[in-house]
Amino acid sequence: MARRKKIYEGKAKTLYEGPEPGTIIQYFKDDATAFNAEKKAVIEGKGVLNNMLSEYFMTGLNTIGVPTHFIKRINMREQLVRACEMVPLEVIVRNFAAGSMAKRLGMDEGTQLPRPIVEYCLKDDKLGDPLVTEEHIAAFGWASQQDMDDILSLALRVNDFLSGVMFGVGIRLVDFKIEIGRVYDGDFQRLIVADEISPDSCRLWDIATGRKLDKDVFRRDLGSLTDAYTEVATRLGVMPKGATPMVRPTLIN
User: Fold this and answer.
1) What share of the chain is helix, strand, coil (3-state, %, to 5)?
2) Who contacts 195 (Cβ-Cβ below 8 Å, separation ≥6)?
């Protein structure tokens, strides 16, 4: 069978035409990047872990009525997802000060925020994904006011779900980012959670020790990224204890 047509290749995933109209196959790569791709590595097994963890989170969100693009996991590295028109924003929800927010505001990392704070960045690697305000978003037509209301609601519901799930296995959800897609049912548009939810897109700290279990392990050279992601997957029951994610890439037919 002929190889499927590639639609897009990003830093961590490759998208291919799906088997049915309106579907896409999302392939998770082992590539790790940081600092807007200035730091790069290939970490065997990372794509497998992110695929399985994203499936777990997206399935959970679908179950509680938060719509996502996820349809099903095909194999260890691929998911079938719904095609959507992406809103050109990264939506960041912060529960504790860390990363760029701590640096920007001169706060100690780990400071609990008085409430979850939602920030928006324009998704543009060439510009370094700059922070933008709702005024920018409205002025440049990236999303309508109704869209922004819906995006805020989705982001906070995702935060409630992820925070609870993580707290239950002894992990603090420090912050995370999601991306939002538009889908159309006839003339009716709705917004759904798209892209992925994984330790690549979250900051996760062990509650007891403060150990980082997310991509900061790679950013800051704190040890094995695969071990950190495996720890998250094991605690959540996504991967049996002692199992290994070291699976070679699957070719797409």
Assistant:
1) 30, 35, 40
2) 69, 86, 178, 179, 181, 201
Question: What gap in Å lies between CA 148 and CA 120, rounded to an integer?
Answer: 10
**Whether the Cβ atoms of residue 236 and residue 169 lie closer than 8 Å to each other:** yes
The three-class DSSP label of residue 101 is helix
Range of the domain at 37: 6-84+224-235
- Give the CATH number for residue 95: 3.30.470.20
Name residues whose C-beta falls within 8 Å of residue 165's C-beta, 6 or more positions apart in sequence. Answer: 57, 60, 236
Do residues 179 and 123 lie in contact, with contact meaning Cβ atoms separated by under 8 Å?
A: yes
Are 48 and 89 part of one and the same domain? no
The angle, 0 to 180 degrees and rounded to 10, between the axes of the packed helices 46-63 and 225-235 is 30
Domain shared by 115 and 55, yes or no: no
pTM confidence score:
0.92
By C-alpha distance, which of 172, 230, 243, 162 is closest to 197? Answer: 162
User: pLDDT tens-digit profile of 10-45?
Assistant: 999 999 999 999 999 999 999 999 887 789 999 999
Nearest to 89 by CA among 128, 61, 124: 124
DSSP H/E element including 210: none
What confidence score (pLDDT) does residue 247 get?
46
